[in-house]
Amino acid sequence: MESGPRGLLISPIKDGTVIDHIRAGAALTVLRMLGITGQTDEELSIATNVTSMTGGQEGRKDIVKVSNRELSKEEVDRIALISPHATINIIRDYIVVEKKGVETPKLLYGIVRCTNAGCITNANEPIQSAFEVTEDGLHCLYCDTVITTDLENHII
Amino acid sequence: MKHIISIKDFSREDIDTLLARAGAIDAAPQIRKTLDGKQVALLFFEPSTRTRMSFTSAVSRLGGTSITVDSVEGSSISKGETLADTVRVVSSYVDAIVLRHPKEGAARLASEFASVPVINAGDGAGQHPSQTLLDLYTIRQSMPLDGIHIGLLGDLRYGRTTHSLAYALSNYDVTLHTIAPQTLELPESLVAELHKRGCRVEEHEDITDIMPELDVIYATRIQRERFPDAASYYNVAESYRITPEILEGHKEGMIVLHPLPRAGEIDPRVDALPCARYFEQAGNGIPVRMAMLEEVI
User: Fold this and answer.
1) How many CB pairs under 8 A join A and B?
2) B126: nearest CA in chain A?
3) Which of A141, B118, B178, B293 holds its CA 20 to 30 A away from the CA of B28?
4) How far apart, in whole angstroms, are the C-alpha atoms of residue B77 and residue B85?
């Protein structure tokens, strides 16, 4: 097999978060879930479809590095929904001070929009969506709808 | 504080207790004044004749009084007020709220904002626990719930009454026979859930295949708007019509139920047969809803 010269694909960051082992092709969705757009100030490095030494989807993965930002638990929960094998590395002064996997939460509040247009959570009421994560999918605790497919498009 | 939101919140024991209470009320309705001095708000943001009237009657028979909103137009919701605000305000006026609302999950939301008990009187295509409980009560008047074969007939895909009833019956040792056109079968997710709860579900397209085995026929309206044209509706609707001829050879003691209103699913000639119990079923809304009110207040 032909192999080219090896080197750093993206440079290290001084402070911030490295989200590694994102499902291949899902990096842009992760950015959207974190509210990071071209209009925000974060310094970003993104690598998509890079070779993963630990397997993953056909040996490929995505990586996102966000400078000067540490993710909240809610943000990590969101990532777990679409990339349950992702790892979160907190970087301070170029050193990984914390490394953790993501964990799919049992309950999700305000993270996913219910697909049922008739659900009260889609009306103008002062409540967040609420889902229980089950083996069948996401179960809306208000209207009993179960979301089984196309989850990425329903993340708020 | 206790709310009644979904039949899924009820265990078998809860159901049996409430039905027993309804039975006691039925046996001696005149001596109950358990809501004496209490007031109940009936917030009906969606049309409903039977449910609203039976709750009104139930409150009255328990010695309580009711105040009613019977349309969105007649309430501050028409001015843009949220349901959350409405129930917070109404909570300060009354001892309980009975809510009917077009959005699914509305009763769950109301229970989170109300400072008094909330009873769900139907939220959209979602839950309608009082209907399910009166359905169970009506069956139990004729036979024990355990061991029965019940045929659910009609629009099983979109009909909330059949979904809730099927779920409630899965607390018991029953065999559910679904009888519906292919396009209107019980949702797969519900069938899977019923199987998971140990309930036997058998699917049929023609009621005559299974008629002699049934202890209960629960017919529902086939909704014309679900079909692409009138001809395909009439083809199907005609084949799901309960007639005296279809019922010939039925098991002894078999009963026919329907949540009403009916739209041709049951031939009026069936009304005179001893197995026709749908009008008694509607009447059972009173003791069952009295029991529900006593349970929460």
Assistant:
1) 52
2) A143
3) B118
4) 9
Please give the backbone phi and psi of residue B125, each rounded to the nearest 5 degrees, phi first: -90, 15
pTM, 2 dp = 0.87
Length of chain A: 156
B151 sits in the region (left: phi over 0; alpha: psi -120 to 50; else beta) called: beta
Residue A58 pLDDT: 64
Q: Among B154, B256, B250, B255, which residue's Cα sits nearest to residue B205?
A: B154
Tokens of B137: 């009560």
Say if residue A9's pLDDT is above 70.
no
H-helix segments, chain B: 12-27, 49-61, 83-91, 106-113, 129-142, 160-169, 188-196, 230-239, 244-247, 278-283, 285-296
Q: Residue A118 and residue B104: Cβ atoms within 8 Å?
A: yes
* pLDDT tens figures, B183-200: 888 988 889 989 999 999
Set of chain B residues whose Cβ sits within 8 Å of the Cβ of A142:
104-105, 108-109
Q: What is the pLDDT of residue B224?
A: 74
